[in-house]
Design a protein that fits this description.
Length: about 190
């Protein structure tokens, strides 16, 4: 007899609520709001996507002139923060989920799967390194660039004036590292 054989459905009702209320009965608006409250994350995600697409169309149609790189940077800033936060969460979530999955397996099965995973990782890394070396030897990147062009590029580093807003945006951007492990290990020294 398993756990699923003894499962019972227990109906919970809030005090003061009649049975048909909020479930498509007489008050449909209450049912919609209750459903939206239960599914808040998907609803907010869809609203954010619709808002972002709408804002993109509005900004595209209202601008009569071309956007300057600085204006694009200001509009791009919230998206950069969001992507940096997502990138920062990927490694800890993957490590936690893989650790939990392996921990739930029995030892012989996890040993077998772990061995295959290590073999797969080593073989794909080895193939990528060999492929990269072969392509560099065949293509020889940078060999056709003349010495004159190389000298011109050294002196032509484009610089734009740095404003206070650039410094503040960079400070906020660096609060959300894309790789938490690398930011913990890396040592950065700043000259004062």
């Amino acid at each position: 007899m398993s756990l699923y054989d003894r499962t019972e459905v227990v109906r919970m009702e809030e005090p003061g609520r009649t049975e048909g209320e909020g479930k498509g009965g007489s008050s449909g608006a209450t049912g919609i709001f209750a459903t939206m409250k239960k599914n808040l994350l998907p609803v907010l995600t869809v609203m954010a996507v619709v808002g972002g697409v709408s804002m993109g169309f509005i900004l595209r149609t209202t601008s009569s002139s071309k956007w300057t790189p600085r204006e694009v940077m200001y509009i791009q800033f919230p998206g950069d923060l969001f992507l940096r936060m997502l990138k920062g969460l990927i490694i800890p979530l993957l490590v936690a989920s893989v650790t939990a999955a392996i921990g739930s397996l029995d030892f012989s099965l996890s040993k077998k799967i772990g061995g295959r995973a290590v073999l797969y990782y080593v073989s794909t890394t080895l193939l990528a390194v060999i492929e990269g070396i072969i392509l560099v030897l065949l293509i020889k990147p940078g060999s056709r660039v003349s010495d004159v062009l190389k000298e011109d590029r050294k002196g032509s580093v484009m610089s734009r004036p740095v404003t206070t807003a650039d410094t503040l945006l960079d400070l906020v951007r660096n609060l959300f590292p894309p790789n938490l492990v690398q930011s913990c290990i890396a040592q950065q020294f700043f000259e004062l």
